[in-house]
Amino acid sequence: MAPASILCAVSEVSSLSPHDSYGPVGRSEWMDVDWSAHQRWVNIEERRVNVIDIGSGPPVVFIHGLACWQSWLENICFFAREHRVIAMDLPGFGASSLPLEPISITGYARILDELCEQLGVERAMVVGNSMGGFIGAELAIRFPSRVERLCLAPAIGLNMEWVRAERKKNISSRIENMLFFTLAWLSIRSDIPVRRPRLRSKLLALIVAHPELLPGALILAVVRGNGKQIAVPAALEAMTRYPIRDRLGEIACPTLIIWGAEDRLVPVQDASEFEWLIPESRKLIYDDTGHMPNLERPERFNADLRVFLDERPPPSAGDEARLTRVTRIR
């Protein structure tokens, strides 16, 4: 791994700093890592699951959305300095095989629990993006002893109930929703946006606020890691048919909610809903940021998440001044 860059100052996450830049700054560490040295295959429910396992220390598990483990490239190396970092391709995504049973959010949570069991991870800090946030929340609900802390960055789930209701109304609503999610899927799996700048901006604009500012190498790495993405239609259906709103109050671990103010896939209002429904939670809102704050604002995201993961014990009311409930960056 390349030499560690200077760590961000993380004692005050609400102040502006040079680390608020959009996209990676300088050469990213992940470009100098031999990822094959950290890859392993784990058999779960009679299927092979592709796993990246790097670093040592308190475990952090990253869960991707409709993408692949490479969507965490800008975050893995940072946390691997002090943590054991585990990032997988969910079954049916990236290089992992489709699960035997129909895809469900509950099934994915169960697979995550089994993965932790096989890797000897008794308790972990879990970070999920989009569908990965949905799965992380389900993991914290169904297997609470497995999740020490939870970060939703952001999480899809609440608005999917609305999507399902809309899809039942009429043909036009179904077509609009299908087109919306099809374009979102295409924007993260096809190499067309990488090869054609104009299409790259138009399609990736559904996912990130400024696609033209993200390095082509990063986008290409995520695109190439996506594989055939054969699970996407079933995963989308699984999200729309499983309401989680009424169960979020069961999440007992400290929870950090990170959201982009310009998220076009999941409305920023959902961040407040998650914060309201999850008892021990608080949110950070990043201005001028889309659906993937971990890639769009990697230095800020890594710094904020590090503050949260390093908190011992969970913050009391007097600590709220140190980690502001709602943070905006520009």
Characteristic key phrases:
16% strand, disordered N terminus, Rossmann fold, 12 helices, 330 residues, 8-stranded mixed sheet
The gist of it:
It is built from twelve helices and eight strands.
Describe the overall structure:
It is a single chain. The protein has 330 residues and is an alpha/beta fold. It has a domain of 212 residues: Rossmann fold. The chain contains twelve helices and eight strands. Strands 1-2-4-3-5-6-7-8 form an eight-stranded mixed beta sheet, with helices on both faces. A hairpin with a 2-residue loop joins strand 1 and strand 2. Helix 4 crosses helix 5.
Q: Which quaternary structure do these chains form?
A: single chain
DSSP strand tally: 8
* Structure classification: alpha/beta
**Uncertain spans:** 1-16, 166-181, 315-330
Q: At the fourth CATH level, what is the homologous superfamily of one domain?
A: Alpha/Beta hydrolase fold, catalytic domain
Head-to-tail CA distance between termini: 31 Å
Query: Helix count?
Result: 12
Amount of beta strand = 15-25%
Kindly provide the name of the CATH class of one domain.
Alpha Beta
Task: Please tell me the CATH architecture of one domain by its name.
Answer: 3-Layer(aba) Sandwich
Radius of gyration: 18 Å
Main β-sheet, in a few words?
Answer: 8 strands, mixed
Strand order of the largest sheet: 1-2-4-3-5-6-7-8
- Overall shape: it is globular
Helix content: 25-40%
Order of helices and strands: EEEHEHEHEHHHHHHEHEHH
Average pLDDT:
82
What's the CATH topology label of one domain? Rossmann fold
